[in-house]
Amino acid sequence: MASRTSRPRPAFRCTECGWTTVKWVGRCGECQEWGTVVEADAAAGPRTAATSPSRAPAVPIADVPVEAARAVPTGVDELDRVLGGGLVPGAVVLLAGEPGVGKSTLLLDVAAIAAMGGRTVLYVSGEESAGQVRLRAERIGALAPSLLLASETDLGTVLGHVESNEPDLLVLDSVQTIASTAVEGGPGGVAQVREVASAIIQAAKSRNMPVLLVGHVTKDGSVAGPRTLEHLVDVVCTFEGDRHSSLRLVRAVKNRYGPTDEVGCFELTEGGIVGLADPSGLFVSAAVQDVPGTCVTVTLEGRRPLPLEVQALAVPSTVPNPRRTTNGLDSSRLAMLLAVMHRFAGLRLDQQDVYASTVGGLRVSEPAADLAVTLAVMSAARHRALPRGTFAIGEVGLSGELRPVAALARRLGEAARLGLRTAVVPASSAAQLDPARLPAGLTLRPVHHVAEVAELFFADADERATR
């Protein structure tokens, strides 16, 4: 029997993630975006023919010049730390963060420093008028003759400013407010953001002009707009901070020219944003006397060790289900630690409200802070302060054992620099340390289990409670 010739079925493709389907649907089955599934060309095989390289023929990799691709410092040390040394010519950097966190202030400061250094900088604002940006520049001392300012929302006009002024640095605030008349849809739409990003990237690569883009974020903290925006740019940085705190953190989520485990610390003040080269003391309280319910730990933000104080409070509950309230800590992690303390340390808190918080507003998700949270809760429940100068680093498992942590030597060195002298650490991590390289005056208290921690600091308190 002769086989029937199969006709090519029409295909539909998602413009966001590339997911394909045989029929049109309103919502992508992969990335769950609405209105991104369009009909794809059903022609089989590639349509682009090979051509001879006209502008840049292939050369041996050792003969490729690298001087033009070296990073140029921005003048803001904390930002250079995150970027990997500075801005690479032709690089496109996307800085995303919540409204009011200080993105525009930071980039205006970077633009002013570059302009004061003799470079021509074009600052395009699509959210504020030129007068509003000028007032902010005057407040933070960012007035420079070669800092050019334009308030535009049309992509063609922005590219015209780039053609006429030929800047050495372009700052675009923000990519979601710029739109092209050649593309349908309003500013911030999927097609508009993709068109704006593609045009700006092409201009940056052709001119070896670094570009700083400001991006909005959604409710869950991810970059607003199509996912392809993060793929197109070279560097993606997130700007984090609490409205009630002056501390700001810049993290590199993606970086083609440097590491992605560095964190820059800034302080937002009335006179602008200031880099914090040594932010260690911001997260430790300056109590003049020993207070129950506190314990210091050392977390890693990227590769930077930061001493952090954890505070806990345990009070009798007035409701059938006791409260478990956290600030800066994971609530589910606290619940797990309370269960471990109940099972292996004999600490019953089923009729008490437990509150746990970090000092300074820093949010901690690293498991190495488990031991400090455990000691803080034990100290609060037994009304017994830890010895002055004591800090704890370690991850607590469900069976009560203490697991090793990374970069313990670096954490111990930072704690010793602040005057902390007694370290409670997992025994498995302490066995890997070289005693000759420990900071002078530092005493290690290796422990294997949560029960040992309770016996080490609160054994006499438990004996008095049972009498």
UniProtKB/TrEMBL annotation:
The region called Lon-protease-like is annotated at 353-467
Keyword Cell inner membrane on this protein? Answer: no
Which stretches make up the RecA family profile domain? 68-217
Q: Which UniProt keywords apply?
A: ATP-binding, DNA damage, DNA repair, DNA-binding, Hydrolase, Metal-binding, Nucleotide-binding, Stress response, Zinc, Zinc-finger
> Does this entry carry the keyword Thylakoid?
no
Instruction: Look up the domain of life of the source.
Output: Bacteria
What's this chain's function?
Plays a role in repairing double-strand DNA breaks, probably involving stabilizing or processing branched DNA or blocked replication forks. DNA-dependent ATPase involved in processing of recombination intermediates, plays a role in repairing DNA breaks. Stimulates the branch migration of RecA-mediated strand transfer reactions, allowing the 3' invading strand to extend heteroduplex DNA faster. Binds ssDNA in the presence of ADP but not other nucleotides, has ATPase activity that is stimulated by ssDNA and various branched DNA structures, but inhibited by SSB. Does not have RecA's homology-searching function.
Q: Return the similarity comment.
A: Belongs to the RecA family. RadA subfamily.
Protein name per its UniProtKB record: DNA repair protein RadA
Species of origin reads: Flavimobilis rhizosphaerae
Gene (UniProt)? radA
